[in-house]
TrEMBL record:
Gene3D superfamilies: Folate-binding superfamily. This is Sarcosine oxidase subunit delta. One of its GO terms (biological process) is tetrahydrofolate metabolic process. InterPro entries: SoxD, SoxD_sf. GO terms for molecular function: sarcosine oxidase activity.
Length: 109
């Protein structure tokens, strides 16, 4: 069972209280982008076996979007944080690095 803490309202709940929104920290491409950029934005998502950064919405609660760092194998949640960020907070990155040797944050530009 996946237990998430909503960073917006502070409620802890199981995943049925939330709605998954896919990969977090996507670089968006729209008008003016090349076909390849737009294609990759739409269809080329990560599906890692391990650490994944995801978007979630507190659908049966405050209704707000937030981001979560979790492990898709162990279901461990490393932390949740505001959706208004461009990368995970340093404390979450440190926690992941301590538990998953070799993991590194990829740079988004
Ligand atoms: Zn909430």
């Amino acid at each position: 069972m996946l237990i998430l803490d909503c960073p917006c309202c502070g409620v802890r709940g199981e995943e049925t209280e939330f709605a998954a929104g896919g990969e977090a920290h996507l670089k968006r491409f729209g008008p003016g982008s090349t076909d390849d950029q737009f294609h990759d934005y739409l269809f080329m998502k990560e599906n890692p076996k391990g650490v994944h950064l995801e978007r979630w919405r507190h659908a049966n609660g405050c209704g707000k979007w937030f981001l979560a760092a979790r492990n898709t194998v162990t279901m461990e949640v490393y932390g949740t944080y505001s959706a208004q960020t461009t990368e995970p907070p340093q404390e979450i990155k440190d926690k992941i690095s301590a538990k998953v040797p070799g993991w590194s944050w990829r740079e988004f530009s």
